[in-house]
Amino acid sequence: EDLQIVRQTMRDAQPRGVTPLASHVREIRRQITDMLPQLQQTGGKVVMVLATDGLPSDEMGISGETSRSELQVALRSLEGLPVWIVVRLCTDEDSVVEY
Predict the structure, then answer these.
(1) Rounded Cα–Cα distance for residues 59 and 34 (Å)
(2) For the whole model, what pTM was predicted?
């Protein structure tokens, strides 16, 4: 069942030219919260891999302090949940790597 969920998630993921990381993290948080009783019962953890080639942006592709702050808030909202976060940078662009 877990493998099917992962496969479906990967099939549904579509690159769109924008990097709305905060909204994706919020959606993943909602899914983790839904699974929380089962995770607590089994001692399970979720591994969230964020693979990105750009700075955080909104749904319109606008990247700035607001988008960066929203991502920080979204990531902090995962504190206390059974989740490991891995960030994979798919670029060597200085502004992205430095962020």
Answers:
(1) 24
(2) 0.74
Q: Which helix (H) or strand (E) holds 86?
A: strand 83-89
* Burial grade of 22 (CB within 10 A; 0-12, 13-18, 19 or more): buried
Q: What is the mean pLDDT of each run of 10 residues along the chain (99 residues)?
A: 83 74 94 96 96 82 87 96 93 79
With respect to residue 85, please indicate whether it lies within any of the assigned structural domains. yes
Query: What length does the chain have?
Result: 99
Is position 65 within any domain? yes
Q: Which residue has the tokens 């891999």?
A: 49
Query: In the prediction, which pLDDT does 48 show?
Result: 95
**Residue 54 belongs to domain spanning:** 18-98
Structural domains of the chain, count: 1
Tokens standing for 84? 């490991």
Nearest to 13 by CA among 2, 28, 35: 28
9 domain-assigned: no
Residue 48 lies in a domain: yes
